[in-house]
Design brief:
single chain, nine-stranded mixed beta sheet, Dihydrodipicolinate Reductase, domain 2, 2 domains, 343 residues, Rossmann fold
Length: 343
């Protein structure tokens, strides 16, 4: 299958490296406007054509699947061009910083038969996958509450680049980090009924650096999210979920799972246990930025090859966009707002 990558920033380089090493995947073309990067690609990958304009690339190349790894404000316009050219696509999260753009993309995709995928790589981290299976076994019984955090030590002065420009990024840490957590929570617990949020800018002028969110799920689970990219003590971005049910508690992050049960249930050997990922994780053929990215790309390629939609397609990812949209709106009203998902 022929694959192209649009945008060679951090994520574009990562996916291009993975795709170029996977069996039965031909990385045939790249779109990149920065001359320094495009010249390097031309000199190092003779079999890959480099374009400055993705529309021209679409016209000139026989592309099966395009990876959209550009700044957020360009995601939907490029995806719409993919639809017009009948090219399936993968886009990095979030879909957009503009809720109406997300609605338009969903509407156009309903008229199309192309495949579409969104990059929520945390669904491919072994610990989070394992906890999903434990929740499906109902080891905690009836779930009551979930407390979630995502922190990183990234921003401690006025930031530069497109992520701090709301016109390009669409938002700050709630949209960037929060979307990962909200996707996991949807995967685990289903739809969210209503949401309330508070945000704060510390170093950034145009976007928020911290966010605190409360939400109620349709199934009456109560949840919270605290996220910041200005939290000291975190070498890498880290998600922690604390899940409480009538039979105990599970705490999970990228490295381990802590289980404390009131009563032992089938499928587990101990009432209290700490399970490290090294005891059950699976390997990958290449690891550039983390095994989860490789597993994500393998999943996308497999889904495309077998003509199946991804674990996370645009319609599924639009649920995250809906929750974040109403979270931002709730800041203005200082109250809980009902979440209206895109139909």
């Amino acid at each position: 299958m022929n694959v192209a990558v649009i945008g060679l920033g951090k994520m574009g380089l990562l996916h291009a490296g993975i795709l170029n090493s996977l069996k039965d995947v031909n990385l045939i073309a790249i779109t990149e406007k920065e001359k320094l990067i495009s010249n390097y690609i031309k000199s190092s990958l003779d079999n890959v054509k480099v374009y400055e304009d993705y529309e021209k690339m679409f016209e000139s190349e026989n592309i099966d699947l395009a990876y959209i790894t550009t700044p957020v404000s360009t995601h939907v316009p490029i995806a719409l061009a993919c639809i017009n050219n009948k090219i399936s696509f993968f886009m990095e999260k979030p879909i957009s910083g503009n809720f109406n753009e997300t609605k338009k993309l969903c509407s156009e995709l309903k008229k199309s038969n192309i495949q579409h995928y969104v990059g929520f790589n945390r669904r491919f981290i072994d610990t989070f996958v394992k906890v999903k299976s434990l929740l499906d076994l109902k080891v905690l019984g009836q779930i009551d509450t979930v407390k979630s955090t995502m922190y990183a030590a990234n921003v401690f002065s006025k930031p530069k680049g497109w992520r701090s420009n709301k016109k390009i990024s669409g938002g700050g840490v709630l949209l960037d980090f929060g979307s990962h957590v909200i996707d996991l929570l949807h995967w685990y617990f289903g739809d969210i009924k209503d949401v309330s949020a508070k945000i704060r800018s510390i170093y950034s002028e145009d976007v928020e650096d911290e966010a605190e969110v409360q939400f109620n799920f349709v199934n009456n689970i109560k949840g919270s999210l605290s996220t910041s990219w200005s939290k000291k003590g975190y070498r890498l971005p880290e998600i922690t979920l604390e899940i409480n049910g009538d039979n105990g508690q599970i705490i999970v992050n990228e490295d381990c799972i802590k289980i404390a049960l009131k009563k032992l249930v089938p499928g587990l050997e101990k009432q209290e246990d700490t399970i490290y990922k090294q005891t059950f994780c699976t390997g990958v053929p290449i690891d550039i930025g983390g095994a989860d990215y490789t597993k994500e790309d393998i999943h996308v390629i497999s889904a495309f090859t077998n003509n199946k939609q991804s674990l996370v397609n645009v319609f599924e990812a639009s649920k995250v966009q809906s929750v974040i949209h109403y979270a931002y709106e709730s800041v203005k009203s200082n109250s809980f707002l009902k979440v209206k998902y895109i139909e």
